Amino acid sequence: MGITIAIDCMGGDHGPNVTVPAALDFLSRNADARVILVGLEEKLRAILPAPVPERVAIRHASEVVAMDEPPALALRNKKDSSMRVAINLVKEGEADACISAGNTGALMAISRFVLKMLPGIDRPAICAVLPTVKGHVHVLDMGANVDCSPEHLLQFGIMGAMLVAAVDHREQPTVGILNIGEEDIKGNEVVKQAAELLRNSGLNFIGNVEGDGVYKGEAEVVVCDGFVGNVALKTSEGLAQMLSTFLRQEFGRNLFTKLVALLALPVLKGFKRRVDHRRYNGASLLGLKGIVVKSHGSADAYGFRHAIERAAEEARGQVLSRIADQVARHVSSSSQAAAVAAQESA
Amino acid sequence: MGITIAIDCMGGDHGPNVTVPAALDFLSRNADARVILVGLEEKLRAILPAPVPERVAIRHASEVVAMDEPPALALRNKKDSSMRVAINLVKEGEADACISAGNTGALMAISRFVLKMLPGIDRPAICAVLPTVKGHVHVLDMGANVDCSPEHLLQFGIMGAMLVAAVDHREQPTVGILNIGEEDIKGNEVVKQAAELLRNSGLNFIGNVEGDGVYKGEAEVVVCDGFVGNVALKTSEGLAQMLSTFLRQEFGRNLFTKLVALLALPVLKGFKRRVDHRRYNGASLLGLKGIVVKSHGSADAYGFRHAIERAAEEARGQVLSRIADQVARHVSSSSQAAAVAAQESA
């Protein structure tokens, strides 16, 4: 039994020129997979080979959500956008997952409206993958929620752990909470309370992870609120860009350094491959009754294909039932504990 | 008229072995400066040349604050610690500034207790300097305050701008507030309100700066709460370390790559110099009635010397009176505005 991925082909900075070739590349590497390409049929056919390849279906959608469109307007007015139609396909069971490189806010709003939340989860979270010295780390939330309660952070921990179980086949991944280590004041109240909840959650919780611990690979899942997560992610992007600029400038300084750069090319390529953000493209919108993956808007076909792979892995690993089961287990053990406490105090 | 810097020689991972040579190097480059070396006299004399060089005074202090000592205990029990004695020298006007590589929490607690806050400033903030594509940026707070009100963030903006005026001789530096740019939700309530206050503050406020904008040099001063600032700083440290590890590994892969590394050495050195964190060593504790600079605990003599230079620049640039004046101006214009508003509504 194969899997089917619905692809919003119109989203992102490059639209079908990137999404369609990425989809075909994905199919050539995944014999069990089918794709439904969603968008302006004419544009899609112009890029697709004729006849349309096997395992490819086209679903026409007459509208496109603009990258800068206010999410509330996209939700209200664009009922036939490629983004919404792709999400509908997941809702109706025609696709196992959907993916878009479009407007993040709109994707979040429409997904939440169409798919609804899983029972026991209050808010969706954006989970990204980052490289570490040891491999990679899943970090959430990356910007969906600016103010989080301890309970929200606990739910993020459960969702992140189940995502890692689904895609990395690690049944008890380590979970840490992002915190600061200043001697005087170890974190704010919300983080302290969330750590307490995580410690009693049955997850493999390892405690606080400081900023530098994220890239040291101290935990497989790192939980934080969306404000902090987004700042950490964007700061990292900015630093990496700056370092790459400086390195290029130093290698471009004169004829000798340019020659050295030529010799160093295989080394620099090897280095670049290890931190290539395109290989980590694809953030998961977790907590919904359906698998939704967000690609970076500027992704090329290589990066977008990686994001499709991610959606496929989540479907194969049954991330949704894993999250639902774990939340149910957690809720029942909490209410048992509450019942015991009530009995003892009676 | 020269300046005098009090140096806690016992703090940090390496103590006098780093702090004393750094102080002597600093003196050789700053003919107008004197230093007071504070610590266990015997240990200091063992490292100093005999006779003690000109412009060097020794002040014995019998105790040392341990790096992992709870700040409250250090404050209560170690009245004769090198850290406290150095701060006392500032309080008593014998030194224009003091510097320590010791326990951050203790330095903060003792500075606040001994020196007190400047009028109109509620809390001290830690301000660090980071390299950018365009030069450098001052970011505060880096971890002194985990929960900040909009008014605190406004005060950070004033202090940061005055610090840049003092040390970089830029009278109207640009000030931004660290925020996230997710389409749906632009920042939390505190940040929105703080932005409003900064917009009306008379500072050269340029609005939101996202994480990547910090290293792009979008503003000369970036304001954030201590939790976010600390995470951003530590995350950057972790990423830089990881990239450096990967680069070393790739250059160490085989005989050819090692040979290339040898050729590339001048390039890599030039690169390293541009992002050498030792050149940015020295975070300012702002808001106190005295200049206090915190060096990284693991700094070597080169790094510690840079932190002493920083303390000296702050003293020469009269950062304290600049902050005090600006706060006074701000308070008077706010109360004028309030008076006008009251009159209008009457």
UniProtKB/TrEMBL annotation, chains A, B:
Its main location: cytoplasm. The keyword Transport does not apply. The keyword Cytoplasm applies. It catalyses: a fatty acyl-[ACP] + phosphate = an acyl phosphate + holo-[ACP]. Its EC number is 2.3.1.274. It is an enzyme of class 2 (transferase). InterPro entries: FA_synthesis, Phospholipid_synth_PlsX-like. Belongs to the PlsX family. This is Phosphate acyltransferase. It comes from Azospira oryzae. The lineage of its organism: Bacteria, Pseudomonadati, Pseudomonadota, Betaproteobacteria, Rhodocyclales.
